[in-house]
TrEMBL record:
Residues 38-407 form the FAD dependent oxidoreductase domain. It comes from the Bacteria. The keyword Cell inner membrane does not apply. Gene3D superfamilies: D-Amino Acid Oxidase, subunit A, domain 2, FAD/NAD(P)-binding domain. Keywords: Oxidoreductase. GO terms for cellular component: cytoplasm. This is FAD dependent oxidoreductase domain-containing protein. Coiled coil: none annotated. GO terms for molecular function: oxidoreductase activity. InterPro entries: FAD-dep_OxRdtase, FAD/NAD-bd_sf.
């Protein structure tokens, strides 16, 4: 099998920029034969590894196993935008306040920030580096739309108790820093920053192994059985029984054998998104370009973009609604050829117009019908799950890992009273209908985005 061969360590390098930057990591052997543990975790991304790690830390006598279908970090945890933001769910934050109330949304943002702080603490304790640069980040307006959206964003943050973290930069100040003809005013949040998500995953993976977690990679799950006294998980080569099961499979949850019986087939929907990184700039080039904070820039508009300098010197960007809804259940990694010749970076930042694209990649994120991350229990009370991070899963996923570990060890403990866990969750309609709805939304968004782009000076070409 591929996971048993030495060359497997470099096999995933085409999957994202992060697989190019992290050191090779030999996969752990797949599950073979039969074994029994106290808690089994499915999914080797940040949520699953954080769950396994916190389980091992909380109780040294707890037998913990983690099964990953590919290798740790294969999914969204190894191919995201490389920013840590204090944000929550999908869509408009004001709509989240209308759904859940200001107090709960404020608690959710605090919960996300706790995830960022927990990353720093665990990395320091375990002695690994994940290229974290606590630069903060900018939420910026498009010049053509004015500052109304960031003013509304600031009011919402004040309403939920987080307004004290935001600092307003007027358009002239932003122009002085970024030299962009397209960006207006911005809000600076000093929390968060840039990091290497795969280095985080690899560091957490090593820490979990040191603490006694049994990791099985290249171990896709065929079925989940709940008829016996313990939950039974079967792969192509082995079987595992556990008292508790944690599903940390996010965008892949609907593909699990047994997902329908557990009531999870429609808990989330996978949405394909794409990322692009430029060739690296030298330090002199960066100084000439400006960007004194080296903070990520996130556009507050229907025409969303995210730009972030990386530790290797490149500019990583996502956005422009380069996304699509899968029409079937296949979720293979992909690239999007037009992104290779995109002029987006040069149009937003003329001083970076000479940069060439180094790599593009794509894959699914997990979205929910109620625009809110799901953290809950399946139809079988022995099975916990988390999904639907809306492309912001690293911070909340890390924090969810601690919560899931606490719930696995103490189902009626304090973690069970978190509103994110206790709330009623809305499900998607059947897959074909969900796909049709998602494609219609994407089509409408693209039309709207082109109208916005056509008003910009210089004009932003979303197709080149």
């Amino acid at each position: 099998m591929l996971a048993d061969r030495p060359e497997a360590a470099g096999f995933y390098r085409s999957r994202s920029h992060w697989h190019e930057t992290a050191a090779p990591c030999a996969p752990e052997p797949p599950l073979r034969g039969h074994m029994r543990v106290d808690v089994c975790v499915l999914g080797g991304g940040v949520t699953g590894l954080s769950t396994a790690y916190h389980l091992a830390c909380a109780s040294s006598g707890t037998r913990v196993a983690l099964l990953e279908a590919e290798v740790a970090g294969y999914g969204a945890s190894g191919r995201n935008a490389g920013q840590l933001l204090v944000t929550f769910g999908g869509g408009d934050l004001g709509a989240q306040v209308r759904r859940h109330g200001a107090e709960k949304v404020g608690q959710a943002l605090t919960y996300v920030n706790e995830g960022i702080e927990a990353m720093k603490s665990v990395a320091a304790t375990e002695g690994f580096d994940y290229d974290f640069r606590e630069t903060g980040y900018l939420k910026a307006a498009l010049r053509v739309e004015g500052d109304a959206e960031i003013e509304r964003y600031q009011r919402i943050f004040e309403q939920v108790g987080h307004g004290g973290h935001l600092h307003y930069l007027n358009p002239s100040q932003v122009e002085e820093e970024l030299h962009s003809p397209l960006i207006g005013g911005a809000l600076y949040d000093p929390r968060g920053g840039q990091f290497n998500p795969l280095k985080l995953v690899r560091g957490l993976r090593a820490a979990a192994l040191r603490r006694g977690v049994q990791l099985f990679e290249n171990s896709p799950v065929a079925t989940i059985g709940t008829d016996g006294p313990r939950v039974r998980v079967e792969t192509g080569q082995g079987a595992l029984e556990a008292d508790r099961l944690v599903l940390a499979t996010n965008a892949y949850t609907h593909l699990l054998g047994g997902a329908q019986a557990l009531g999870l087939t429609r808990a989330q929907y996978p949405l394909i998104v794409r990322g692009t990184i430029t060739e690296p700039l030298s330090e002199a080039d960066w100084q000439a370009a400006g960007w004194p904070r080296r903070s990520g820039v996130n556009i507050l508009s229907q025409l969303f973009f995210s730009f972030a300098p990386t530790a290797q010197g490149g500019m990583l960007w996502v956005g422009g609604y380069n996304t699509h809804a899968p029409s079937d259940r296949a979720l293979m990694p992909e690239v999007h050829a037009p992104l290779r010749s995109s002029k987006v970076v040069g149009t937003f930042f003329p001083r970076l117009a000479h940069l060439k694209t180094a790599q593009t990649w794509g894959g699914p994120i997990s979205i929910t019908a109620d625009w809110t991350p799901h953290l809950g229990v399946a139809r079988d009370p022995r099975i916990l799950y988390a999904c639907g991070c809306w492309g912001h899963g690293m911070a909340i996923g890390f924090r969810n890992g601690r919560t899931l570990a606490e719930l696995a060890l103490s189902p009626d403990g304090e973690a069970s009273r978190l509103w994110l866990f206790a709330r009623a969750k809305r499900r998607w309609p059947p897959f074909l209908l969900s796909s049709a709805v998602a494609r219609k939304v994407i089509y409408d968004r693209r039309r709207g985005n082109r109208r916005i782009a056509a008003k910009m000076t210089p004009r932003l070409d979303l197709d080149a």
